[in-house]
Amino acid sequence: MFDFVFYQLNLFYEKREKGSDTIWTAAFYVTILQFLMLYSAFVFIDIFTNKTLSDILLGGNKTLAIIISLVAVVLLFLFNRNRYRRKQDLIVGKYKKHPANQWFKIWMVAALMMLLLLSPILWNELHKLIVR
Questions:
Q1: Residue 26 is part of which domain span?
Q2: Which of 18, 59, 78, 128 shows its CA 20 to 30 Å from the CA of 69?
């Protein structure tokens, strides 16, 4: 899934940013998408267990949790950038004639990101209303 999203984003930015490093931009957005997926999962864990991941793993040290999260996101971005830089030609060849190209649009990535960001927050508020 992430490779296809990278392909679409890279194609989109190649049309708009001629002469710039489109791999960097596409890998950045793939990293944000991956982070939002993890964020949603962690928020749902928090909702259903009433404990945050920092409570479970770090004894509630939120500062350390933030630092670890930031370092993890930066490392994930560097991993994605290097991976997609090495495999760009392979990914382009694989997805150039993919059937999903007919219906997949870039706005779907933005909508998915918004859904991943807002759904745990909305679910949490709904859960609070129901539990009261």
A1: 2-131
A2: 128
**Separation of alpha carbons 41 and 129, rounded Å:** 21
Token readout for 130 is 């129901």
Whose CA is closest to 92, among 84, 83, 104?
Answer: 84
The total number of structural domains in the chain stands at 1
The pLDDT tens digits of the residues spanning 96-111 come to 888 887 888 888 888 9
DSSP 60: T
Which residue from 26, 8, 19 is spatially nearest to 105, judged by alpha carbons? 8
d(CA 132, CA 128): 6
Closest by Cα among 10, 19, 1, 12 to 84: 10
The span from the CA of 32 to the CA of 51, in Å, is: 24
